[in-house]
Amino acid sequence: MFCALLGPNGAGKSTLFALMTRLFTSPQGRIEIAGHDMARSPRAALKRMGVVFQQPTLDLDLTVQRNLDYFSALHGLSGRTARSRIDEALDRLGMRDKASEIVRNLNGGHRRRLEIARCLCHRPKVLLLDEPTVGLDAATRQAITEHVHDLSRSDGLTVLWATHLTDEIRDGDQLLVLHHGRLLENGQTGELRGGVPLAQHFLSLTGETE
Amino acid sequence: MIPALIALRAIIAREALRFVGQRSRFVAALVRPLLWLIVFAAGFRAALGLSITPPYQTYTTYEVYIVPGLCGMILLFNGMQSSLSLVYDREMGSMRLLLTSPLPRWWLLFCRLLASTAISILQVYAFLAVTALYGIQFSAAGYVALLPALVIAGLMLGALGLALSSTIRQLENFAGVMNFVIFPMFFLSTALYPLWKMAESSELLHDICAVNPFTHAVELIRFALYAQFNGMALLWTTLTGLVLLALAIWGYDPARGMVRRKS
Amino acid sequence: MLRSLPLLSLLVLSEPAMAAEIWVTNEKDDTISVIDIASLEVVRTIPTGERPRGITFSKDFSRVYICASDSDTVQVMDPETGKILHDLPSGEDPEQFVLHPNDRHLYIANEDDAVTTVVDTETRSVIAQINVGIEPEGMAVSPDGKIAITTSETTNMAHWIDTETRQLFANTLVDSRPRHAEFTAGGSELWVSSEIGGTITVFDTGTQTEKGKIEFEVQGVHPDRVQPVGFEFTADEKTAFVALGPSNHVAVVNAETLEVEDYILVGRRVWHMAFSPDKSLLFTTNGVSGDVTVIDVAKREAIKSIKVGRFPWGAALRP
């Protein structure tokens, strides 16, 4: 399932991500990831979650392989298991040939793809991506958006994709519109926008309140 | 291997790789204490010798006296620098990566602490290798006994850095930490002058020095370098380390993080 | 390293049941501190006459002679009991003395009287007084017993005395304020230290002519403070250790090239010194800091300083 979290800058998307990844906790409300309550069993929840943060979190001076090794180890993977999972993840993002390159030498698109590959290493059930296409050119943006849509279809992964760009959202996606920390809409994109282009629909929802 | 140890190994390996990759950082870490040793000790040569205080058995020159203090300085600066990079990391992301691992948070913080301490210890030994070439040598037993002392002192000072980094949100404030934490801790300790020398100038100064945890870290190192054991210094350093570590873990508690963010 | 092992065990075996000691006179405390060489600790403190300085043992170590300067006497003590057996007539203000190889005659420098007094320790009587320069202090007798030396602090001379005739047969100028004189073991050289001059002058014994001069310079210490006083030779005679007074250092001198090879930091105002029986350790008396610094001779390193009485001055080995 691909779920798009759409909201203008400052809508509260990043705060929501911080809460969902347990960088912070809130005394109110409840967060459940793949059936695990974040407050009660946070480690089980984190284990089933792959995250791509808005800011890159790669070690630029290390190789692709080293970056993935490190991440896998943080999730308790080592040895042969880690190696095969890493290869598998690299294959899926078409990055296998880049394994021994220093991250600093990769372009923005490849770095993003590496981060997505990375968060697949521990075979999560849920993928959280916070504006993963920021700073990428149109073609790369298109390719990555397409790729993650594929992942959600072929692997039964639940994807939560935060963005403020309407062209990254397909009609079949579930759509959540967030504005000023409040949920304005929740439903299938195609149904919600009706005949109007999504961009226009989005503007009509969020524009007038500004 | 259990996941906790896999993570520990990876965190240490990452710090080591980053350290090896940043040769300038290594050189800088080595140059600072060497500058002190050569410039400062030469200026205050005390060729006539410093009075005998334990663990010294006889008169020492100033250069010999300040070596353990400079080892402590490496640990102190590294502990703080590592916490600086934590604050930086927190903004930039790699700390996020660490904290979203499905391992207990206190363990992750402890691993990080251990990793930065390991790097500090490498630097201390590199520094001691240079001082040995310069002519200030210690016994083999001293170099061996030093290791556990460095681990304890390094963890304590790293925990101090962690505790500070968990309470400091803005990077700008770190300059303040340098001014208000590192320098007073270093100067108001036995790193540069023995306690009796402090008592000569002011009783208050002596008392501050005597309770400064950095003093105890330095004395622990000093005694170890002479293959001797200082129980008092060990006790103080360990206790302070535990308190600071608890403070750091509390500071990185996600619930508290939210409260701080709101305010 | 391995070769020295049998030697070492031999030393251990041949060690007498009683441990070797270093006896140190404390000028201000009027005591002797006895340091046990094995434990490097003071094991006894023995009262003496006023202002004890020079100290030496009889050949069989059954008696110890002590210059009690302010009591104007040389005391004879039983080292076992620490009891004063009797006093010897010494002339006024005896500071340093030396025991003739005949184990019988003491040559004593009388600082205030400008004389050297020769005392028979058996008859306990003065057998000669020899006029020398002003403020005599350093005393030495050649190994063959034929020559005695007195150095005078104010005249700045080494006076050569024929022990047969008890007459001066030569006077040689040295640098300002000579304090200590010592023959090399073979007797071919005489070394005289000059405190103010800051040098040691080396003489050829046969011709009484100057062979060379040693100068000292301790980095970071004002030259005025570099004041050579007591000195001793290592077993192989290749090295001399020289106490440099208020510079708080002992110089290590190559006895062949007369070059200073090293300086060792010791306590404040180092006066005199004595070796352990195997000459592996050297004990220096540090007047102002009131302690004795132990030097590892092979490593040329100070290993420990032992608190003794106030103003330790002379040192002697009791094996």
Automatic annotation (TrEMBL), chain B:
Its main location: membrane. Residues 24-255 form the ABC transmembrane type-2 domain. PROSITE patterns: ABC_TM2. Pfam families: ABC2_membrane. The chain crosses the membrane at residues 34-53, 65-88, 109-134, 140-164, 176-196, 233-252. It is found in: Cell inner membrane; Membrane. It comes from Ruegeria sediminis. This is Transport permease protein. Belongs to the ABC-2 integral membrane protein family. It is a multi-pass membrane protein. NCBIfam families: phenyl_ABC_PedC (TIGR03861). Keywords: Cell membrane, Membrane, Transmembrane, Transmembrane helix, Transport. It comes from the Bacteria.
TrEMBL record, chain C:
It comes from the Bacteria. The keyword Signal applies. Keywords: Signal. Residues 17-105 form the YNCE-like beta-propeller domain. InterPro entries: Host-pathogen_enzymatic-act (IPR051200), N2O_reductase_N (IPR011045), PQQ_b_propeller (IPR022456), WD40/YVTN_repeat-like_dom_sf (IPR015943), YNCE-like_beta-prop (IPR048433), YVTN_b-propeller_repeat (IPR011964). The keyword Signal applies. It holds the Pfam family YNCE. Residues 1-19 form the signal peptide. This is YVTN family beta-propeller repeat protein. It comes from Ruegeria sediminis.
